[in-house]
Write a structure and sequence with these properties.
- Helices cover 12% and strands 37% of the residues.
- By secondary structure, the protein is mainly β.
- It has four domains: 14-113, no CATH class; 119-361, no CATH class; 380-600, no CATH class; 607-743, Immunoglobulin-like, CATH 2.60.40.
- Helix 7 packs across helix 9 (259-268).
- The longest helix has 14 residues, at 130-143.
- The N and C termini lie far apart (111 Å).
- Mean pLDDT is 86; it is low at 1-11 and 144-169.
């Protein structure tokens, strides 16, 4: 296709394409000629050869509505419209009439080059415990009510936090990066969207500010306005996950999370500091500097959760100081139903072209897979999770035998000896507690051959030794696995047990990662209903067996002495005793024939009851109570507030509110917090008495001397520490009463 005119060939219908300005050694574009009919469909396609020649018969030219010249992708049926040169048939024939050569200018034929673009990343499904969603909701909604001016140092303290092992969450940024567990999403498609951004730094008095304020106001309008209880009492439950405005298509939208705070800051910052604040936050900086998203490619997720998607298109010319950003939408089709489990476009999550994009889905509808393990010669098993809590947070003594532990301490068997993230330590277990073990792939190999496991429970005496009869976990247990069928991907259950093998009962198959593409959220090894047992310390023991139900013990350990065949094998029981990433090994060997942990559960419910109202030390418990007195008269309550085991009371609070207290702020506390049991048991124990406030304090006559009477409510709430390791909220009981006060005496 040299830049010179060719002589007309003698053969009718043979022509040549001339690329004006084409130089020797340049790569030739892949050019195609198509004839388009009246129905706008191509009925004739002719690739142009390397020497520029192409054929076009008079019959094709006569039938054509349009002649199109350009390039197209390998799997396309039509020439890409951005590259197309479109001719009317008569016009096309006229240009070829003299010498059979069609000349195209360089400015046009340079568009016919195709370039390959690629993006890559990985997809995860991350499980947050219920308390995390609750805390996120309350932190956002409560901050919506904070109207007091902020100092400039406070405003600039809201920078995005970096992940860390925090012991206390005191900001939204820290909450977002709170440690969590993720599984690989290994099935699904990834849609790639692109936009071009020219993010110019903001300046003082930037004209974009009114638009940003308007957008933030619109976001804040849909955030529920939850009035926090100024009288200490439980807040209302948060909305369901799918209805929270901070999540878009399973993705966390940080713009919405921080919208309330950003709006408050931007309204309070001095004009000279606004640009600095916005420039430090990319999700604000680039909000008005990007083109509309356009879908450019689609690809599949690899078995390991990664994706690498490439596509061909024409070279793109981007203005200086601009660049392309990519967002992704992940969809999964299960049983014929397609669901979006991650929507980075809706959540405004964008990546550069060369980024290893980390796509995190929080959607409860997402199906994830375990990472397939690769044996490295290590064979071990340890307790991994108690509910959703990592097992190092369980304060269990070291093992002293295959079925016992060393002498327990006063808080042994409880969770969070150092605090649960909100400063609450030594939380008792209750309800149904899910146990998850980590079986390494080395346990499966021939040298060990572990096939089954068994979990048992026995009461513990004061010395950490088992007492009474031993109970075995024996509920039906299934995991879900992903299976490719002729009609697509399907999710099917795999029964793990219980089985009886060679007379050994209550055995469960060890679900190794390499056995199947395990998916779904119900991947635990035992669910212990603590209500089936006494409220005290218990020992939970794990045993492992081979395919013939012979008990396996680590090489070098003493026999358990239990009935049945027992074989020594090269593996280790281990106990996770410190946070991951701590100095030294985070697990310690358990040198016995089975592995035992100590748990302390107690399902005693919190109790709260206001028995009577108290004026000047006199008890009243009538239906309608109107108290009269002097400014120095006192008000209090007689009440019961307890958890049966006082060690497991988080605290109880007593507060009062005046009239429309949530609007006008007329509130106070008789008792800010106490973790002492009051009036236990009920009956026959009499209720205790609260601290008191004066009538003048409750009516706030100091700020409003004319207010000498009003209606009130008083509220008592008792919180317990009980958790199942997954839900870290605090069970509570509450009691309230209504009354009126009047100062009518000197």
């Amino acid at each position: 296709m040299a830049d010179k005119k060719s002589e007309r060939k003698g053969n009718e219908g043979q022509f040549r394409l001339n690329l004006v300005g084409f130089k020797q050694g340049e790569e030739q574009p892949r050019v195609v000629l198509q004839a388009i009919g009246e129905d706008q469909k191509a009925f004739f396609t002719e690739p142009v050869k390397d020497d520029g020649s192409f054929a076009l018969s008079a019959d094709v030219l006569k039938r054509a509505h349009r002649i199109v010249l350009g390039t197209m992708a390998d799997d396309a049926e039509a020439i890409h419209h951005d590259s197309a040169v479109v001719f009317r048939p008569a016009q096309f024939a006229q240009q070829l009439a003299d010498d059979g050569v069609l000349s195209i200018s360089r400015n046009w034929w340079e568009r016919w080059y195709w370039y390959t673009y690629c993006v890559s990343g990985h997809v995860r499904h991350c499980r947050r415990r219920p308390w995390w969603f609750n805390e996120l909701h309350y932190k956002v909604t409560q901050s919506a009510l904070e109207t007091s001016p902020l100092s400039q140092s406070e405003m600039f303290s809201f920078e995005v936090a970096t992940p860390r092992n925090s012991s206390y969450v005191n900001s939204l940024s820290e909450l977002i990066y709170w440690p969590f567990r993720c599984d690989t999403i290994c099935y699904g498609t990834v849609e790639v969207y692109r936009r071009t951004c020219c993010c110019e730094p903001w300046i003082i008095d930037d004209p974009r500010l009114p638009d940003l304020i308007r957008d933030l106001e619109r976001i804040v309008e849909v955030i529920p306005q939850v009035v926090p209880g100024k009288i200490p009492q439980p807040p209302p439950p948060p909305p369901e996950f799918d209805k929270m405005p901070y999540f878009k298509g399973g993705s966390l939208d940080e713009l919405s999370v921080f919208a309330v705070r950003d709006l408050q800051v931007l309204r309070n910052l001095p004009q000279s500091a606004i640009a600095e604040y916005i420039n430090a936050r990319e999700y604000l900086l680039c909000r008005f500097s990007c083109s509309k998203p356009r879908k450019v490619a689609t690809g599949d997720i690899n078995p390991d959760g990664t994706f690498n998607i490439c596509w061909s298109e024409f070279p793109r010319r981007i203005r200086p100081n601009c660049d392309d950003r990519y967002a992704y939408v992940v969809k999964q089709t299960i049983g014929g139903t397609t669901t979006t489990v991650y929507d980075g476009v809706a959540a405004n999550i964008w990546f550069s072209a060369d980024a290893d994009a980390d796509l995190v889905s929080y959607s409860p509808k997402a199906f994830s897979c375990s990472d397939t393990g690769h044996p490295d010669g290590q064979a071990y098993v340890y307790l991994d999770l108690v509910g959703g809590t990592e097992a190092w947070q369980l304060n269990t003594p070291a093992s002293a035998g295959w079925d016992r532990v060393a002498l327990p301490g006063g808080n042994s068997g409880l969770l969070f000896p150092a605090g649960d993230g909100n400063g609450v330590a030594d939380r008792n277990l209750g309800g149904t507690v899910l146990l998850t073990f980590n079986f390494s792939e080395g346990m499966k190999q021939a040298a060990v051959g572990a096939k089954y496991y068994r979990v048992s429970i026995s009461e513990a005496n004061a010395n950490g030794e088992p007492t009474g009869s031993r109970s075995y976990y024996q509920n039906g247990l299934s995991w879900q696995k992903a299976v490719m069928t002729s009609s697509g991907l399907d999710i099917v259950p795999e029964v793990l047990g219980p089985f009886t093998v060679n007379g050994v009962s209550n055995l469960y198959t060890i679900p190794y990662d390499s056995n199947a593409d395990w998916t779904g959220g119900g991947r635990y090894h035992a669910a212990i209903n603590t209500n089936d047992f006494a409220d005290k310390q218990h020992l939970i023991t794990l045993e492992v067996f081979d395919t013939n139900a012979a008990r396996l013990r680590p090489t070098g350990t003493a026999p358990t002495g239990e009935p049945g065949t027992e074989i020594a094998k090269p593996f280790k029981f281990r106990r996770w005793f410190q946070a991951g990433g701590s100095p030294g090994d985070d697990t310690v060997e358990v040198p016995f024939g089975a592995m035992t942990h100590l748990f302390w559960w107690d399902n005693g419910a919190p109790y709260a009851k206001i028995d009577a109202l108290v004026r000047n030390g006199v008890v009243f418990n009538y239906e309608c109570l109107f108290f009269e007195g002097s400014a120095n008269s006192t008000f209090g309550i007689q009440y019961h507030a307890y958890v049966p085991n006082p060690m497991f009371q988080y605290h109880h609070t007593i507060g009062w509110g005046r009239g429309l207290y949530s609007v006008y702020g007329g509130t106070g506390t008789l008792l800010a917090a106490s973790n002492a049991n009051v009036g236990y048991p009920d009956p026959p124990a009499p209720g205790g008495f609260s601290p008191t406030n004066t009538f003048a304090e409750m009516l706030d006559t100091a700020s409003d001397p004319g207010r000498n009477k009003c209606s009130f409510v008083v509220n008592l709430t008792t919180y317990a520490k009980t958790t199942n390791g997954d839900d870290l909220s605090y069970p509570y009981a509450t009691s309230g009463a209504a009354f009126a006060l009047e100062i009518n005496q000197p």
